[in-house]
């Protein structure tokens, strides 16, 4: 049992189950590789332990509008995750085998089921495959070639089965590579685990979302030894880039998180195509901020030749709630080769471009700087 | 004191369909839908506002506006420079390339495809199916600068689908929307081992509102979808009085309400939709799912009957959202009564479609030798019947 946080089950609470499967014992390089059996070319992963740890670290600072943090259950295989409490706890982290996941899920289910105001969060990072359902592959996947899906979770059916749970808000984050060739899917024999069987009970849930790192059979990506791109984007979104204004408050809700992740996964010249997707009613507020989110901006000149002599200033107008407005800001504006970048609190800014050498007259415009960020061309008028 | 804010958007920026907008000010948040050539007006207290439009791609357009009492304030949203990082998104690149050349492509034809530079070329073919029979395609392909090839189709209302394949390209079937006209778009795809097998094919109907709504749902932007839904729900509720109403829009409205759990807000409309459009599997699925999600004691007999009718149509639901609901609902019924052999048989049929489908597509798309024969086998080659199919031209040949 690896209950890394236990603040109790009384009243409305956020209960978390996080699973990161990096090492797979039956894949090449694992402790019990299947000799002569390719298992679709799947390999060991380095990102999931780090990603699960990153998610758990974020959850420790969650500020849900109605529910305080309750429990965090963590299962990890593979190296690289950090134990906050030292080697003893590190040794106690359970490996996400099918048996351990089933037991952890039942603990989590029971905790969530104590109060209908509870918030259920489930996070998974590891290999996955989508056929008629999305199957998440656990540490002992591939134990039998006769029943390949035996040690996998049918997350679609599990998600529907969670309608039986009393927790009215349920959010699942699935960061799974889905890279088995399409025509090989027919070789996946057996049945995956349904962790809670769906029943004909209607669906009384208030808000649900299952956010997926990729759409369909596409791959999820990450660099070796780093948390995955999706999880890093997810954390940035939860920390503020997925925020929107609700009255005087900045709140992080599901659609805004989804938009922020979508945008963040596009960044970078070398970034492969990765389009996240989502199921569920998905409009709920997961987190609220105590200050305006810090938002990245990229500005460039049109025509580019005007950039050389230009000097840019930004003045926050303190029009949006909780904005700290004036500098110093986390960064910038900093000159790049063709423009400027900065990270500033969300607000309305007056942007001025001056030309000390007198090439052009001063240019000004209002700029709405909102999450997840802005990229704007500044038309330089003679 | 109040003033008037008039919002409009360029067709290019909105991908030729309606988009969701928000107007944010001190203590004010207005939401609505905005379509090209259809300005939206907001009466607002005097002050400064941020206008934020969200596209189905997830990109956002922003503007700052000052509302005064002396005059109307006009805000035009548009211009790619306002969209964050779209240079690096190939889907937006597709939009730019296609949108600049033609006016008739909408979100799901231009954006769904991770488009690359060239169309599939002479090694691909297409044919139209009416039910289970090959029909005459009657469409001249258009080749776009981006390399995309489109086929404007006018099959009429019914269960039509298009099949695309090639000697090195897995045969797949794409269900056409319940619309008198549709567009098929074929682009090259970087996905060589997945469903696409190197070529991405999408369909779109004639309702830009439905296309945008499905775009928002597919990308998880349920809040933006909610801004478009009222108009589609209104039209859906009128459809029994107005023969010109869009069946496509009605299906979109039904699926949206089911997605967000508001299916009871339209009362018996799903039942009337299923009664009036019995040929459309989606109509049965929408009504069955409404029944099964009702808390308490759902009407299982009627739900079961609807689901069986959907399967007996001999074609899957036109929309992937419907296929997912049909599969899930049948799983529920089969689990509740394992001795129900007809349900078990129907579930087995639907499972075949579900296993072979592309879950990312708006319109049901699956590998198949024939529309009624979904498969996970990679079937390739030219059709044996020398008639009824057309070669898909290559952009290179024409240039």
Provide a descriptive summary of the structure in words.
- Helix content of chain A is 17%, strand content 32%.
- Chain A is of the alpha/beta class and 382 residues long.
- In chain A, the strands form four sheets. In chain A, strands 1, 2, 3, 4, 5, 6, 7, 8 and 11 form a nine-stranded mixed beta sheet that branches. In chain A, strands 15-16-13-19 form a four-stranded mixed beta sheet, with no helix packed on it. A three-stranded antiparallel beta sheet of chain A has the order 9-10-12.
- The relative contact order of chain A is 0.12.
- Chain B has helices at residues 90-99, 107-110, 208-218, 222-238, 247-259, 269-276, 281-292, 300-312, 320-336, 341-356, 395-398; strands at residues 2-9, 19-25, 28-34, 40-45, 47-54, 60-67, 73-77, 125-130, 133-135, 142-143, 149-153, 160-166, 169-175, 182-188, 199-204, 365-367, 389-391.
- In chain B, the strands form four sheets. In chain B, strands 8, 9, 12, 13, 16 and 17 form a six-stranded antiparallel beta sheet that branches.
- In chain B, β5 (47-54) and β6 (60-67) form a beta hairpin.
- In chain B, α6 packs antiparallel against α7 (281-292) and α9 runs antiparallel to α10.
- The longest helix of chain B has 17 residues, at 222-238.
- Chain B is globular.
- Chains A and B meet through α4, α6, β18 and β19 of A and β5, β6, α4, α9 and α10 of B.
Give a summary of the structure in a few sentences:
Chain A is of the alpha/beta class and 382 residues long. Chain A has six helices and 19 strands.
